[in-house]
Every structure is written in structure tokens, then in C-alpha cells.
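Case 237 in the screening queue. Each case pairs one protein sequence with one candidate compound; here the compound is NAP. For every case the pipeline is the same: read the inputs, emit a complex structure as C-alpha cells, and attach any notable structural observations.

Predict complex for case 237.
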Amino acid sequence: MQIEGCVAFVTGADRGLGAGLLNALLERGAGKVYAGVKKMEGVADGDPRVVPVEVDITNIEQVASAASNAKDITLLINNAGLNRTQPVLETNDAEAARAEMEVNYFGTLNMMRAFSPALKSNGGAIINILSILARVALPSMASLSASKAAALRMTEGARAELAPHGVRVISVLPGPIDTEMSRSIPPPKIPVGEAVDAVLSALEGGSDEVYMGAMAQEIARGLAADRQALHARLLTL
Ligand SMILES: NC(=O)c1ccc[n+]([C@@H]2O[C@H](COP(=O)([O-])OP(=O)(O)OC[C@H]3O[C@@H](n4cnc5c(N)ncnc54)[C@H](OP(=O)(O)O)[C@@H]3O)[C@@H](O)[C@H]2O)c1
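Case 237 output:
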């Protein structure tokens, strides 16, 4: 689909990848961009095409209200995400698994359910920003991996449900991106500008599952070639 003239909704638009996507959509001629933010003070104003929307994606009433005020959308980018950087068993944050599932799985599902009626009638696309850790568990972040894996399966289900309505659903699986979320991860990390380009070019490409960055692509190849050897290697990280 074309970015020029599109009406987009981006969650988590106040910082990191979401802020980069917001700016790039404007630069590339989007007609309107709803900037979904958890707290209203996070949005930069200035461009009249930006419509700030307060929406915590785990809050079903806020999500419903956002959807009823954005019935003109043609592109939904589910970018908001949470990573508490926890393993699954010996965790020092017993609430992490539930919080990550609430945001990464249920929050994304809330948005898709609320916005799909408008997308069905307008046509368009959904991009879900997942993670390469939807395909493999990095032991130190296995809790996040579980929530992203659930979101990946849910995205596949939604793709099948929306295909007959002409709505494309794309999963983007990035490796580490240079944002606050990956502050504790050593380089190399994908610069935000490159990550933004990869997300938006997914709209032009034919693949519905996009592996972003060298690490994600190497893991995808490793999974296809020898899953067990790859898992053994991840245990050492
Ligand atoms: N950075 C990486 O290495 C990496 C790698 C793979 C995938 N990803 C994915 O890329 C996406 C963007 O992450 P990022 O790197 O830009 O991280 P970030 O800088 O930590 O930004 C996360 C964004 O999500 C928002 N958010 C969190 N919980 C929310 C909720 N309940 N409702 C609405 N918004 C919420 C945050 O809002 P507040 O500012 O209000 O907290 C923030 O805008 C995420 O889905 C992440 O999982 C990132």
C-alpha cells in the first residue's frame, strides 16, 4: 500500500521506534497520523496532520474510544511494547510475565479487534512490531519471548481472518534496535532510522513476515537449518 495520503495510527508514538515511525510517515506524505500515547504530555505538536490520542493499549475503554474517533484509518502500526528483561523461573519481578503479556499480547489484540472494522471497510494494512524473540527464547528475556510468541501466533490468525476483506497483516520481527528498551544490550543494534525504513518498506514488499536486521535474519536461517544447534548456541548468550 502507498504511504502517501494514508491515515495511520501508531501506538507508543512518543519515543523510540514509534516516534521514528510517526516522523517518517509525515515525511513520506501521510495524510493524517494518530499518535497513540499512554500519557498525553509525550506527543510533540507542530504538524497539523498529527492527532494525539491518549491510549493505554491495555485499557479496553480507551482503545474503544480511540477506534471510534479514528474510523478513517488505513494503516495501524501496533508498535507499543514492554520488555522487563526477565527469565521465566528465577525472576526478581514476579509481575513481569503478566505485564508483558498484557501489553505485548492482549494490548495488541485489543487494538486489532477495535480497529479491524474500520480497516475492513476502508481497506489497508496492519503492521505488528514483534521481535525475533517471538521465534526463540533468549534465556535472560524468556518472559518477553513468550508474550511476543503469543502475539506472533495471534497475528497469523488475524491475517487469515482479514485476508478475505483485503486487509494485509504484517509481522515485523526485529533484532536489537538502538532505543531505551535495549539500553542494557551491547552493540550492534539497528539504528532507529534503519528500523523505521525496514518497517515502512514492508508495506511495499510481498512478505508478511519480515526479519529486521542481521541478527534476526541469522536466527531465522538458523531455525530453518538446524533448530537444535541454534537453541544450544542461544543458551550460551
Ligand atoms: N528496542 C529493541 O531492541 C526491540 C527489539 C525487538 C522488538 N522491539 C519492539 O519494538 C517496539 C518499540 O519498542 P522501542 O524499542 O521503541 O521501545 P521503547 O523506547 O521502550 O518504547 C516503547 C513504547 O511503547 C509504549 N508503551 C508501553 N506500554 C504501553 C501501553 N500499555 N500502552 C500504550 N503504549 C505503551 C511506551 O510508552 P511510554 O513512553 O508511555 O512508556 C513507548 O512509547 C516494541 O513493540 C518492542 O517490543 C524492540
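Case 237 observations:
- The chain has a mean pLDDT of 96.
- The chain has one domain: 7-235.
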